[in-house]
Amino acid sequence: MPAFLDISNIDMVFPTPKGDFTALKSVNLKIKKGEFISLIGHSGCGKSTVLNVVAGLYKATLGGVILDNKEVNAPGPERAVVFQNHSLLPWLTAYQNVELAVKQVFSKTMGKAEMAEWIEHNLRLVHMDHAMHKRPDEISGGMKQRVGIARALSMQPQVLLMDEPFGALDALTRAHMQDSLMEIQEELNNTVIMITHDVDEAVLLSDRIVMMTNGPAATVGEILDVNLERPRSRLSLAEDKEYNRLRSAVLTFLYEKQRKIEPIKSATEKKAVLSSAS
Amino acid sequence: MSAVKRHLAFASVERLSVQSLLLAFQRLFKSLLLPALGIVAFLILWSFTASSINTSLGEFPGPQAVLEQVQNLYQEHRIEREKEAAFYQRQEERNAKRLAEDPTYTAKVRAYTGKETFWDQIVTSLLTVMSGFLLAVAIAIPLGIAIGLSKKLNTAINPVIQVFKPVSPLAWLPLVTIVVSAVYVTPDPMFAKSFINSLVTVTLCCIWPMVINTSVGVASLNKDWVNVSKVLRLPALRHIKKIVLPASIPAIFTGMRMSLGIAWMVLIAAEMLAQNPGLGKFVWDEFQNGSSQSLSRIMTAVLVIGLIGFFLDRSMLQLQRLLSWDKSMELR
C-alpha cells in the first residue's frame, strides 16, 4: 500500500554566487494518514526546506512529494502551513483572517451562514472565540499563533505543516499551546508534520520523531517511534521510563552523533564573509 | 477607615489631580503655545525686515499691509458678485420685456464676463490641482502595483521613470500647450483648454513619486504574507485586493502626500507661465500691474498659497489616518 504522504529522494540545491549549495540530499520519508511527525535537528540543517518542499513553496531539485496519489507541484490549501511568525494579516481581525481562508476554500460548497459557523467553530477550537474580532496587534503572541492554527485548520487540510509553531513563545505559553494542540489532534486526528527545536515538545506530541543530520547535504538520520499512550500528560510523563528513554535517545542523536561542530575560527570567518557581503 | 488613612488617601488624590493638571498644562504648552510663539516671532521678524526694504513700488509689505489686502480682496470679490447678480437681473428683465412685446422672441442668455476675483482664482486653482492629482493617482497606483509585483517590468520601466522624474514643469508646459491645442479640438469643449493644460502639466509632474513609492511598497511586501496568499491560492486580483493593497497603504500614502505637494507647487508655476486662470495668474497679473498695492497683494497670495498647501497636506494625512490599519504608526 502506498504511503499517504511520500517524500521520495529529495535533493535541494540552491544556486549561490559562489557555486551551488546542496541543502538536502536524498531525503526519504513515508507518512501514514493521521500520523503526527516531528522534524528535529540543529538550526540550519534544512528542516524548513523539507517543509517548504512539501508545502510546494520550494520546488525540489530532484525527487518529489506525493500526497494521496497526487504529485505536489504548487502550494495549496490542502497542505496548510502554520508559519513560525504567525503571519496573520495585521489589517484583518482574527475572524477575518480565518474568513479569508474559509472563503477561498469553501465558497463553492458552503453557504454564507455555514461558512460563518465554520469560522467560529475553528476559532472556538483554539479557544479564541472570546477575542475573534480583535486585530493581531491587540492580542498576545500565543493568541496570534492560535489564530494561525485556526486558519490552517479551517482549510481542512490533508496535511498540516507547522514550522516551529511555538518557537517564538515563552515556555509557559508554549506548554499551554502544546496541550491545546494535543486536544485538537485528539479530536481531528490530522496528519501533521511539525518542525521543532524542542526535544520535550517532539516526544510529547509525536507519533514518530524524524531526526535530521547536519547540513550541508542534510538528510534523515534516524527515525524514532514514540509509542506512548494517548492522551499524554506532561506531568505524569516526567517520571515515565519510556518517555525519558526517548528523550535521551533524541538528545544523544543531537548532541553526540550529530553534534554541531563549528570551530570558533570558522564561525568568525563566516561572520566576516557575511558582513563583507552585506 | 481611620481618619489618618482617609486623610492620606485624600492627599494623594489631591496630589494626583495637581499632577494631572500640570501634565495637561504641559501638553497645552507644547501643542499650542510653542507654535504660537513661533508664529509671533516670525511676524515680528517679518515686519521688522519688511520696513527696512524699499522697492520701486514702495516699502515691502509687512503683516499689516497683508491684512489690509485680505480685506480689500474680499471687498472686491463682494462688489464683483453684486455686479454679476445685477447683470443677470437686468438681462432677465430685458428678456421678459422683449417676450411680452413679441411672444415669438427666443430669449438670449449671455454669461457674465466680469473679471475673476482673488477668490475665484483660489477655487480654480484648487479644482485644477485636485483634478490633475486624481488623474495622476488613477494612473500611478495601478502602474506602481504592476511595477512592484513584476521585477522584470520594473527593470524595463525604471530608466524611463528616472529620466522623467526630475523634469521641471516649465519644460513640459510649452509641449503640453501645443499638443493640447492640436489634439483637444471639439466644437463644444467641456473644459477650457487652459484648464486641460494646467491639469496635464500637474499630472505629468506629480505622477512619479506615487509610482515609485507604490512600487517600492509593493515590492517590499512581507514574504510570509505572500506565502499565505500562495498557500491559499488567491487569484491575482484577490491577492492584490486582500494582501498587496492593504500592505502597501503606508507607502502609497507617503507617495501621495509628496505628489500632492509637488502638484500644488507645479500648478502655481504653470498658471503663472501659461497665463492660465488661477492663483499663479493672479500673482503674475499683479506683478505686471505694478501699482502701489501690488506687492502686498502678491504677499497675500504667497501666504494663501502656503496655507492651502498646508491644508492639502493635512487633509491627506487625515485620510491616511482614516485608511491606515496601523494605528500605532506615528504620522507626521
UniProtKB/TrEMBL annotation, chain A:
The keyword Oxidoreductase does not apply. It is found in: Cell membrane. Residues 5-239 form the ABC transporter domain. It is an enzyme of class 3 (hydrolase). The keyword Nucleus does not apply. One of its GO terms (molecular function) is ATP hydrolysis activity. Its main location: membrane. One of its GO terms (cellular component) is plasma membrane. Keywords: ATP-binding, Cell membrane, Hydrolase, Membrane, Nucleotide-binding, Transport. It is a peripheral membrane protein. Coiled coil: none annotated. Its EC number is 3.6.3.-. InterPro entries: AAA+_ATPase, ABC_transporter-like_ATP-bd, ABC_transporter-like_CS, ABC_transporter_ATP-bind, NO3_transporter_ATP-bd-like, P-loop_NTPase. SMART domains: AAA (SM00382). NCBIfam families: ntrCD. Belongs to the ABC transporter superfamily. This is Nitrate/nitrite transport system ATP-binding protein. The lineage of its organism: Bacteria, Pseudomonadati, Pseudomonadota, Gammaproteobacteria, Cellvibrionales.
TrEMBL record, chain B:
It is a multi-pass membrane protein. The keyword Endoplasmic reticulum does not apply. PROSITE patterns: ABC_TM1. CDD domains: TM_PBP2. One of its GO terms (cellular component) is plasma membrane. GO terms for biological process: transmembrane transport. The keyword Protein transport does not apply. This is Nitrate/nitrite transport system permease protein. It is found in: Cell membrane. Keywords: Cell membrane, Membrane, Transmembrane, Transmembrane helix, Transport. The chain crosses the membrane at residues 32-53, 122-149, 170-187, 199-222, 243-274, 294-312. It comes from Pseudoteredinibacter isoporae.
